[in-house]
Design goal:
The protein is an alpha+beta fold. Probable oxidoreductase that may play a role as regulator of mitochondrial function. GO terms for molecular function: oxidoreductase activity.
């Protein structure tokens, strides 16, 4: 239990609760849920420019990371086709993957196929079920993809000024504007209460909010004087109580609640908002093909990690289909912007390729 670990090391409740947010991020879990300590470890392992556990902003926005990867691949001879939906994996008579078929009917032949789609899409939608072992299919169907995350992107015409640290007269970003700002995190009991409400189908009344202002470090993201704010919030159930839909009214009601909370910490925030984009779990699933809206392609619980990710006997990136590999967040070691699953899968694929 993360709560027990934090109690051993720290006395300050706000500090413990702030650290606890990284133990429940993207997870329908409480700091008191068994296994939550691993999720915290997952988010602080590794390093950035020699600093252990550090995180950073990507200059130009997260899309710039994808572009940098694409440019590196193209420089080495890769061909990238964007906006070309894959209909299914093409199989030879012996059951080996030999390419993919696009929705427009185009066949792309290849000796190997690597999928960074979720295990659910890869094996339940892109591959004929009769080609897979029944116990494997059952395992993939049973993967817990429950997600509590609603992402809200906000455009504002000025920096938020927090009561705890008011803005300078010149309106320039201060050090705290350049960090991850955690709200509604005065105690771990608040996170647990927010989690409990969501388990009953109700969006948290006092949601956990991680507020980032990337334009405070990267001014090119917004016009002069204006800023973009990223709100990573929990907990919102995928399915609301009583089967109510996540319609515009429900979306806006939740976003208003989040904004009311921010207003308590930074009066004037709501008046500064000039636009917002609300992405609930069903929106994240529909737009980005994230199963259940889960940013990790599946829960990072101990029963779905290491040798069981995505399924027992298939944690080594190879799949029941020879020549088909899984290289996304649903593979070991899981989600996060680190590229470990992709690198590991590439090493395995290259090793196999030499024998073809």
């Amino acid at each position: 239990l993360l709560g027990q670990i934090l109690d051993q090391w720290f006395e300050s409740e706000p500090l413990k609760a702030t650290l606890a947010t990284d133990a429940v991020i993207g997870a329908m879990a409480s700091p008191h849920t068994p296994g939550s300590g691993y999720v915290l470890l997952h988010h602080v392992m590794g390093e950035l420019e020699g600093r252990r556990g550090a995180w950073g902003y990507v200059a130009g926005g997260m899309g710039a990371l994808s572009q940098a990867t694409a440019h590196a691949a193209i420089a080495r001879g890769a061909h990238i086709f964007a906006e070309k939906a894959v209909c299914h994996v093409l199989l030879a008579r012996d059951g080996r993957a030999q390419g993919v078929v696009l929705q427009d009917g185009t066949e792309v032949r290849s000796k190997l196929v690597l999928s960074n789609a979720s295990p659910q899409i890869t094996f339940l939608e892109l591959v004929p079920q009769e080609q897979l072992p029944k116990d494997f299919v059952q395992r993939i169907r049973q993967v817990d993809t429950c997600s509590p995350v609603t992402k809200i992107n906000v455009a504002v015409d000025r920096l938020p000024s927090f009561l705890a640290a008011p803005n300078a007269r010149d309106g320039q970003p201060l050090p705290h504007h350049q960090c991850s700002i955690h709200l509604n995190c005065e105690g771990t009991h608040l996170l647990h209460q927010a989690f409990t409400e969501a388990t009953h189908g109700h969006p948290s009344n006092r949601p956990m909010i991680e507020l980032c202002i990337p334009s405070a470090l990267d001014p090119g993201l917004a016009p002069q004087g204006c800023h973009v704010i990223s709100l990573f919030t929990q907990y919102t159930p995928s399915v609301l109580a009583g089967g109510q839909p996540w319609d515009e009214q429900a979306r806006n009601a939740y976003a208003d609640r989040v904004f009311d909370c921010i207003e308590d910490y930074a009066p004037g925030f709501k008046a500064s908002v000039i636009g917002r984009d609300i992405l609930t779990p069903p929106d994240l699933e529909r737009i980005f093909s994230l199963p259940g809206g889960n940013i990790f392609h599946g829960g990072m619980s101990l029963d779905q990690l290491y040798f069981t990710r995505p399924a027992p006997s298939y944690s080594g990136y190879r799949s029941p289909i020879p020549g088909l590999y899984l290289c996304g967040s649903g593979a070991h070691p899981g989600g996060g912007v680190m590229g470990a699953a992709g690198r590991n899968a590439a090493q395995v694929a290259l090793k196999d390729f030499r024998h073809l």
